[in-house]
Amino acid sequence: MRAEGKEVWVLVPPPLPSMYGFLPGIGDIQAEPPHGVDPQLVFFFDSGNLERSGNAVRSIATHATIINVDHHPSNTRFGDINVIDPNAAAVGQMVMEMLDHFGYPITPTIATNLYVALLTDTGGFRHENTTPRALEDAARLARLGADPGRIATQVYKMRPETTLKLSGLALATMRVEMDGRLAWAKVTRPMLKEANAAMAESEGIIDTLNSIAGLELAILFKEVSSDLTKISVRSRGAVDAAALCASFGGGGHIRAAGAEIEKPMDEAVRFVLGAAKEAILAAATQL
Ligand SMILES: [Mn+2]
Fold this sequence. Notes:
Bound molecules: manganese (II) ion
CATH topology of the largest domain: inorganic pyrophosphatase (n-terminal core)
Order of helices and strands: EEEEEHEEHHHHHEEHHEEHEEH
Radius of gyration: 21 Å
Oligomer: single chain
């Protein structure tokens, strides 16, 4: 890609989720710059820290000028210039402001990409960050050529059958405890085989669990190997999911977090549920 006579590379650390394959311009994205080139200026977008960006970018960043554009409140301000806006629902909104400021037109291609940033970072305009500003920016992008119906189909309605089959098998193991405050389910390796699915396809199951009325905490247990179990945690109540997962060596956000437990599935279930129930009771007494 060339911009005003200068070579520009758009780099994203792999793997790039296949659902984004429809984005205009995605073919220009590379995992690392071509061999032998030495970029002098690096823009980071939506990267809370330097570590998230992958090895190739990190090695350039040691001597290039870094411009860090982000909306994570926890951003480590690793850039030479830091543009941080925690009130932006998506970094795409910040990019929109920058294009306006520097007088670049927003083409239908740009509008489509920025709309996807807004759509996905607001969880399909459902998370708490779905502000009037987010909806106004989305409306403007739709006017400039983004097609909300087509984009929603591409992002949310292109799942393979195997993903739904796996989801069905996992949800059949669902247990609801503590008078509906805690729900959990399992994804086992035999289920992956039966559904002919990969573990990555289990990503949406935790959000289905988390849709139960009145729930406080949802936990999905994923059997990675005979002695490693991953957990995904969602909290809608007083429990800090990040703190709960940190107690197992994991982390994340207050409402969504995860951890890796070096135990077989059944042991991990007993271990984590014990701590989760304690956390629910402790959080309730603190209110
Ligand atoms: Mn983001």
